[in-house]
Amino acid sequence: MKKRLKLEPNNNNLIIWEAEQPKAILQIVHGMVEYVERYEEFALAMNNEGFTVIGHDHLGHGYTAQNPSQLGVFPESPEELIDDIERVTSLIQESYPELPIVLLGHSMGSLMCRYYVAKRKPPINALIIMATGQQPKFLTRFALILTECIRLIKGNKHRSKLLTYLSTDSFNRTIKNPKTSVDWLSKNEESNQAYLKNPFCQFIPTIPMYRSIFYFSNQVASKQVIDEIPTQLPILVISGQEDPLGENGKGIERFVKLLKASHSKVSLRLVEEARHEILNENNRNDTYHFIADWMTKNMDG
């Protein structure tokens, strides 16, 4: 059963896909320029595996935006985004006090979850870091400086085509003979076309949104923040083998090496024949089964 709620105080759109007899709760934190209902097929598959799935739209995303002009508008403080994630976790705790919680963050959401778990130590039982990146700190520092320069000239409401060109657009330039501007997302042409036709996925972020993304990228790249993640927490790092954000696996392996230096329960999965959105790929059903199996084995911490 699917329920739609509003998460106070920011009125974030919150979706609950309820399993009949749930054995655990899966909390989803979605990526940039999308929204949580893009995960419905995956959520329903997890329902069949006994997981109730709960997720919210970030500010400036999906149905949380009151009108199209609000899409891509982030708060000035990145911590407000983490506050919203924490509110969902607290709601889950209150509503399902006896059930384990697995936290899953995709792409931008993976960076937020890495930061959230390191800094706030939420009461979760397992963590799934999906389609993440491990950019060098000098690059993220440069991105922050460039963003601030543009902000000083253009203001917070500016939507920078330059930052888009240098960030997400650059990923598509790594794809050989792309058919669309979003081929880097997946090899599933039907999914890519649906993304291009979806008005919730067709906006340029404002300056505060880019600043938040670069801030989280910069923070979680440090060994200090990685070491702040609870050392006994079961962690699955999963990404497409051909995901440009993860440098086709190289950046993912670099991150996992740092993680394993201080954490004892780390699993790595690089999905073959998959790019950035492994949950929308042609071989997504195999990924669904793998994730459900991993959660079942690790949800008790």
TrEMBL record:
Entry superkingdom: Bacteria
InterPro entries: AB_hydrolase_fold (IPR029058), Hydrolase_4 (IPR022742), MAG_DAG_Lipase (IPR051044)
GO MF: hydrolase activity
A UniProt-annotated Pfam family: Hydrolase_4
Keyword vocabulary terms for this entry: Hydrolase
Ranges of residues in domain Serine aminopeptidase S33: 21-282
Transmembrane segments: none
Protein name: Alpha/beta hydrolase
